[in-house]
Amino acid sequence: MGLANIGIPGLILIVVLALIIFGPKKLPEIGKAAGETLREFKSTANDIMEDKTENTEQKDIS
Prior knowledge:
Order of helices and strands: HH
Distance between the termini: 44 Å
Largest sheet: none
Strand content: under 5%
Radius of gyration: 19 Å
Number of helices: 2
Shape: elongated
Structural class: mainly alpha
Low-confidence stretches: none
Helix content: over 70%
Number of strands: 0
């Protein structure tokens, strides 16, 4: 059972727990930080994949 199998009730539970733990004033800051981290991770992963593709193409040409 992975993260993809959480479902709607699980997401609601996570949001409720986050509200209880962090409070409604901190949630936007946490969400923004999580979004920026995810964006940076995706960008880095795409850069790595592009580098690997370029290296593979260069080996095929040689």
